[in-house]
Amino acid sequence: MMTQELDDEPLSLVIVKNDEQVIAGSQSGALYTWNWNTWSDYSKWIGHPNSVDALCKLDEDTICTGGSDGLLRLITVSPQQQFEGILGDHGEDFPIEKMAVGFDEKYLASCGHDLHLRFWNIEFLYENTKRKQQETATSGVNKQETNEPNTVSSPIRINKFDPKDEKLDSLLKSNAEWSKAVTEADPNFFKKLAQIQEPKILWVGCADSRVPANQLVQLAPGEVFVHRNIANVVCHSDLNCLSVLQYAVDVLKVEHVIVCGHSNCGGVAAAMGSGQYGLIDNWLRNIKDVYRFYEKELDEIKDSKERLSRLIEFNAIHSAQNVCRSTIVQNAWHRGQKLTVHAWVYDLENGLVKRLEFSHKDPAKLPSIYACQPL
Ligand SMILES: [Zn+2]
């Protein structure tokens, strides 16, 4: 038996869905799919800009494609073929020839024309699948009956900047790849986003390079309005921060303001000490004021690391309180606008965010000295 002649050269092959589906990658970049034994009928999905030279099954619903553009792409095949993200990169001029999953399902190996074998961590895919299987087993619901798509986590790229790249070429290359990948996943993504932004969240965080707002809560461009400064300080006279707050609340109508501190914050640590750092000392005075408010409790903490952690939490809470005390937020609440203010802290050691004991959504709990009459 054989399929009919294609108008495109098939280069790679994989069998999935418990041997029920055959997928071929082609010269034009399309994926052709046949159900076993129905060789006269196929579906065609044009999901790659260049030829698909290698294919590898990750599980019955997920495959990895290796392209002549050097990219490894993660594709779900059920309930429909869909691009999920880039798993790895051999370099633009280095087509990928072969891929295989290791026996313990931790790594996907690939080889390409760049003269390297490369290994990509794919453990998270299987953790996700196992978790889903457990959830399904616990709830007693058959996944097929619910018709739930078998989603997988989006792969994460962790690139490192090469200081020798003085012209920043690598950044522009990464940007072009990112733009291409996003467009492949959703051809209208940038077109829609260029028209309007409708974020529901304002993030006030530290300028620290290790605390990127969108990335750590896994939200796409357009989802979070962001203000960052040294040590996530919100003070009553900072026109920059207040302007961001006013635009976010009055114009964008965000529904949540998150003030997020982070462990081992250099700004808060500097405010705890007596060293001089220049102009920034005046900014850090705001945190010294926070220390003074909680002086008794902080002074009782003998361990300096613990004391710093507690001041980081107090500083985030104090900034969140100042958000609530602003006329901007009070007026929004008076208008009946839905708006909750949160204080969080992010742990650099494990990448996890913790909620602090602070979440306000009405003016009732404001100290009377800060409460304004409705306009
Ligand atoms: Zn910081």
Automatic annotation (TrEMBL):
SMART domains per record: Pro_CA (SM00947), WD40 (SM00320)
Coiled coil among keywords: yes
InterPro entries, alphabetized: Carbonic_anhydrase, Carbonic_anhydrase_CS, Carbonic_anhydrase_sf, WD40/YVTN_repeat-like_dom_sf, WD40_repeat_dom_sf, WD40_rpt
Coiled-coil stretches noted in the UniProt entry, renumbered to this chain: 284-311
Region annotation Disordered: where it falls in the sequence: 135-158
Reaction(s) catalysed (UniProt annotation): hydrogencarbonate + H(+) = CO2 + H2O
Obligatory cofactor(s): Zn(2+)
Keyword annotations of the record: Coiled coil, Lyase, Metal-binding, Zinc
EC number(s) recorded for this UniProt protein: 4.2.1.1
Name of the protein in question: Carbonic anhydrase
Species: Rhizopus delemar (strain RA 99-880 / ATCC MYA-4621 / FGSC 9543 / NRRL 43880)
